[in-house]
Amino acid sequence: MKVNNILNLGIKELFSLKSDPALMILIVFIFTIAVYSVATGVNLEVKKASIAVVDEDRSPLSRQIVSALLPPIFLPPVEIHARDMNNALNSGEFVFILVFPPNFERDVLQGKKPDLQLNADASAMTMAGNGAVYIEQIILAETINYIEPNRHVSDFLPVTMSIRKLFNPNSSSIWMNAVLQVVNNVTILGIILAGAAFIREREHGTIEHLLCMPVTPSEIMLAKIWANGLVILIATLMSLECVVHLGLGVPIHGSIMVFGLATVLYLFSVTSLGILLGTITRTMAQFGLLIIPIVIVMYLLSGGTTPQDSMPDSLFAIMQLSPSTYYVRLAQDILYRGAELRDVWPRLIILTIIGSIFFMLSLMRFRRAITTMR
Q1: H or E element: which one contains 55?
Q2: Which of 211, 304, 324, 358 could form a disulfide with 298 if both were Cys (CB 3.0 to 4.6 A apart)?
Q3: Is 85 in contact with 97 (CB distance < 8 Å)?
Q4: Tell me: the pLDDT tens digits for 131-154?
């Protein structure tokens, strides 16, 4: 294996990528606009939830509770009639409808513990679940404050819980979505660029030129891996600094160098996987259809969207073979928790082993594919 051959072939790959405007536009878009739009457009917290009120009591207490439903969690409450509730929910006009029964204030003052009805549109699952908890807390706090103005809710509880949120104190979904989107983009482009590079060689007929040169299949593969990986690595680090940190204001607690090392090892795995898929398929259309389920599985089950601890044991064991599982953990540990190299080196070793396995499998398929072309 000659280093000069790998270097020259990699430079050829960079020029080939430069001459493909569609892929260049995709790289720029996916690490800028896509990261920003996903981070700001997908909210997991309750924000500007629409709420209506059916007030059949019209007492000072009910008005005090309604006045406490404030932005930015809720939109200004809209008062409607009881007969309009079903139509309002069916049309999706409101997420919540709070109903005060007649004599609500009188029953509270008499200690009868009256019931309030809260109707929620659970098609907006996250907002309905979290918003109902907020409304319950507001009703309880305002009722206690109305009965005993100098008392607090915690005064009536046997235990006081002090919550301290680390790494994301405001529970901002932007902080989580931005980093997770960058991680997902590395997976997508790592597979697409490497696999597309091999298929492009075959479709353009330049693979035959490579076969006539004094180069080995391993040199060809390594050239494609380092060239495409270098482009993605630079785009990842620039997106993390310019879009995530400066544009969205997400703090980066860990070392960019350690994260870059983890990205290099992960790119070694996914680019090898992309070449493997490229040797299986014949056309770019087939390649595109094949990577869709693979990318979706790696995205949904890597632990970034949902904790892996909640998965079935068999699925959890299978996902330990996926490099995306370890890369998501590394990204969270380094960028959120400020982990150093001494804290994450075991996962880096596992990522290297998985990448080596993928590389050997891809090399075997690559040699077989070249043999059939001779």
Answers
A1: strand 51-55
A2: 324
A3: yes
A4: 888 999 899 888 888 887 776 666
Kindly state whether residues 76 and 176 are assigned to the same domain: no
Tokens 């529970």 identify what position?
171
- Tell me how far CA of residue 48 lies from CA of 45, 96, 215, 291, in angstroms: 10, 11, 61, 37
Of the chain, the end-to-end C-alpha distance in Å amounts to 21
HSE-up of 372 (CA within 13 Å, CB side)? Answer: 9
Confirm if 104 and 54 have CB atoms less than 8 A apart: no
Whether 166 is in a domain gets the answer no
Q: pTM of the entire structure?
A: 0.80
Indicate if 311 and 179 belong to the same structural domain: yes
Region 210-223: mean pLDDT is 78
- Tell whether 27 is covered by a domain: yes
- C-alpha 192/C-alpha 184 separation (Å) is 12
What is the spatial distance between Cα 332 and Cα 172, in angstroms, rounded to a whole number? 15
Count other C-beta atoms under 10 Å from residue 267's C-beta. 29
Evaluate whether residue 322 is within a structural domain.
yes
The contacts of residue 121 (CB under 8 Å, 6+ apart) are 89, 92, 94, 95, 96, 128
73, 49 Cβ separation under 8 angstroms: yes
Per DSSP bridges, beta strands 51-55 and 117-120 are unpaired
Which of 269, 271, 273 has its CA nearest to residue 349? 269
CATH of the domain at 94: 3.40.1710.10
Listed range (110-124, 163-177, 234-248) with the worst mean pLDDT: 163-177
The reported pLDDT for the residue numbered 374 is 52
Q: Assess whether 194 and 319 both reside in one domain.
A: yes
Q: How many CA atoms lie within 13 A of 294 on its CB side?
A: 18
What string of H, E and C letters represents the secondary structure of 64-112?
A: HHHHCCCCCCECCCEECCHHHHHHHHHCCCCCEEEEECCCHHHHHHCCC
